[in-house]
Amino acid sequence: QVQLVESGGGLVQAGGSLRLSCAASTRTFSAYAMGWFRQAPGKEREFVAAIRWSGILIYYADSVKGRFTISRDNAKNTVYLQMNSLNPEDTAVYYCNARADGTDYWGQGTQVTVSS
Fold this sequence. Notes:
There is one protein chain. The chain is an all-beta fold. It is about 0% helix and about 55% strand. Strands 2, 4, 5, 6, 9, 10 and 11 form a 7-stranded mixed β-sheet that branches. Strands 1-3-8-7 form a 4-stranded antiparallel β-sheet, with no helix packed on it. A hairpin with a 2-residue loop joins β9 and β10. The model has no long low-confidence stretch (mean pLDDT about 95).
C-alpha cells in the first residue's frame, strides 16, 4: 500500500509558474513509476507526465511539452511537477500516481487554477 500526498497547488495568473510535490509513504519508492494526471471540470482525467524509477525515461502529454518538467528524488520519496507558462486551460485538479506491478495508487489531488 502506498499513500500519496500532493501539495503546491493554488491560484496563479496566466504566464505564471507553480511547483507541485507528491510525497509517497513507502520504503520502496524507487520501485514505482510516478506520474501526474489532471482532471478539469466536466472532463475525464488525463495524463500529464510520467517518470520511471531511474529518472531517465520521462514522458509528457503534448499539451504540456516544453512547459512542464517532472522530476523525482528517490531519497526523499518525492516526485515534482514544475509548471511554467501556465494558461487557463491548465486549470484542473492534479493527481499524483504511483504504479508498480500493474497496481495504481492515487493521491487526493491538488487544485490548480490559472486566471486569465
